[in-house]
From TrEMBL:
MF-aspect GO terms: electron transfer activity; heme binding; metal ion binding
Domain of life: Bacteria
Pfam families: Cytochrom_C
Record field: transmembrane: 20-45, 66-90, 110-128, 140-163, 183-206, 218-239, 259-278, 285-303
Keywords annotated in UniProt: Heme, Iron, Membrane, Metal-binding, Transmembrane, Transmembrane helix
The name this protein goes by in its record: Mono/diheme cytochrome c family protein
Stretches the record annotates as Disordered: 448-469
SUPFAM superfamilies (UniProt xref): Cytochrome c
Domain Cytochrome c: 367-445
Species of the source: Paraburkholderia bannensis
Length: 469
């Protein structure tokens, strides 16, 4: 029997692998969107400085450019490869699928990114040293190259949600994958959001300007751009919602909006009020206030947005053909890929994954717990923390801390086997593997029942040690 082309399973205990990816991703999104947005602010501001003969505006560009060099470009360039490392170990087949579709897109992105990095150095260090018209051209080239990196990455990210039509599955062509249904919607949302991020960071930089008149004119320039960017992002986000597959809509309505809707409205309101206030009272844009506002909006705005995009894609990691747990979910004739769900149902994961240790290939009474743990990691841990209290939909809580193996097994033999939950993969396993998973999960739940977390402790546990027998 042939093994499947699986990779070793990587699991980060506690927070779960997906959260590692999420944390790196959010930092990256803040840094990268700020840089791309700022590149356009520079181009617009420099055009204005040139037209209205206000060379003092260039002081701000230099300061902001320097700030980006130190923060955004360093943080962005560390977290960018960080995302690669994290996703390669967390979701090797997801990454493999994307590389097989987009290798040249990534190569082009890398070229534009190189132009962008050279551009930001040239922009900062050549200011005032070359003739202004050439410098202005340089700044616009920097802006376009920056946006090109976003455009290319969004083609890949939006394909991860779904191609949106059947064509790609037949042709396997890069352009069918790239120009998928939610490409423009996502590109628009991110383009609007990048102006908001860049304006917020711009206010922070502007708050440090010594010249009050300059500070005022820069703040009055930034605030409306941030407001318009925000409005555009919201409109494009509403359009984006209309380009989603049905599993994403279910996930959104049942699990995400109830948790995140209020935070999103709050972030939008705070950002709008802050930008209006800045425009109204430019002299009161203090550094501490600007920093607090930026931090609030970056954390509470970007985290839910990225979390939602990742969650809505469930059960798939890419193109609605690779499940989060790395199993190929359907045939893709255009790429010569065949579904693996039924093969796994017939032979089981322990026999088909080449990285399973030899002593676990067969479930026995002696190794059932160990085999169950490995199986749960392979089949579930991409989307669920295994430990009670883990932040990523931890399985003990999802199972309501059930300790009854038959009940857990019934969930695996019913909803999971038949794929009735639109947001979970169809996981059909041979009976010995189902029992091993149930055995392991029940054991985890039992340890939790034995050591309950604070608040729900039985009386005996909260008595002072001296009172216990
Ligand atoms: C590709 C991602 C993915 C994988 C793999 C996955 N799940 Fe889930 N599971 C989800 C999502 C998404 C939810 C929705 C709950 C949420 O987001 O809070 C969920 C919910 C659940 C629930 C709660 C019931 C429900 O319908 O909301 C249980 C129980 C569960 N999963 C068990 C498992 C087990 C056991 C495995 C492995 C055999 C597994 N899941 C594998 C994504 C996944």
């Amino acid at each position: 029997m042939d093994m499947l082309g699986m990779y070793p399973t990587f699991y980060v205990p506690g927070i779960g692998t997906a959260w590692v990816m999420g944390i790196i991703g959010v930092i990256h999104v803040v840094a990268s969107h700020t840089s791309v947005g700022a590149s356009f602010l520079f181009a617009l501001l420099e055009t204005r400085a040139w037209r209205e003969k206000k060379p003092e505006l260039l002081v701000f560009i230099k300061q902001y450019g320097m700030f980006l060099l130190v923060f955004s470009y360093i943080i962005g360039s560390i977290t960018g490869p960080g995302i690669w490392y994290a996703i390669t170990v967390a979701s090797p087949r997801g990454v493999g699928g994307l590389i097989h579709n987009f290798v040249w897109v990534w190569a082009s992105e890398w070229v534009y990114f190189t132009v962008e990095v050279i551009g930001v150095y040239a922009l900062v260090y050549l200011l005032g040293k070359i003739d202004p018209k050439t410098h202005l051209k340089l700044t616009w080239s920097f802006a376009l190259a920056s946006w090109a990196t976003m455009l290319l990455i969004v083609g890949i990210l939006s394909f991860m949600m779904w191609p949106g039509n059947d064509r790609w599955y037949r042709t396997g062509s890069t352009s069918d994958a790239f120009f998928n249904v939610n490409f423009f919607a996502q590109l628009g949302t991110r383009t609007g959001a990048m102006f908001v991020m860049a304006a917020l960071v711009g206010l922070l930089v502007a708050s440090r300007l010594k010249d009050a008149a300059l500070r005022r004119s820069v703040v009055r320039f930034l605030a409306p751009i941030g407001l318009l960017g925000g409005l555009f992002a919201v409109l494009m986000f509403l359009y984006y919602l209309r380009t989603l597959p049905s599993n994403a809509i279910v996930m959104l309505n049942t699990h995400l909006l109830p948790v995140y809707a209020k935070a999103m409205v709050a972030v939008f309101t705070v950002a709008t009020l802050w930008l209006l206030f800045a425009w109204w009272r430019p002299q009161q844009v203090y550094t501490s206030l600007a920093l607090a506002m930026f931090a609030f909006i970056a954390v509470f705005g970007v985290w839910p947005e990225e979390r939602m995009r990742e969650s809505m894609r469930k059960p798939y990691v890419a193109g609605q053909y690779i499940y989060g747990n790395q199993v190929i979910a359907r045939d893709v004739p255009g790429k010569g890929i065949a579904s693996e769900v039924d093969t796994i149902a017939a032979h089981g994961l322990l026999k088909l994954n080449p990285f399973v240790p030899a002593h676990l290939r067969e479930v026995t009474d002696a190794n059932e717990l160990e085999a169950g743990k490995l199986l749960t990691k392979m089949a579930c841990a991409n989307c669920h923390s295994l430990e009670p209290g883990g932040p990523l939909r931890n399985l003990p809580a999802k199972l309501h801390y059930a300790t009854d193996e038959d009940m857990i097994a019934a969930f695996l033999r019913g909803p999971l086997k038949y794929g009735t939950q639109p947001y979970m993969p169809r996981i059909d396993l041979p009976d010995d593997e189902v029992r091993a998973i149930a055995h392991y999960l029940a054991a985890v739940d039992r340890t939790r029942t034995a050591n309950p977390p604070g608040g729900q402790q039985p009386l005996a546990a909260i008595q002072p040690v001296s009172m216990r027998k």
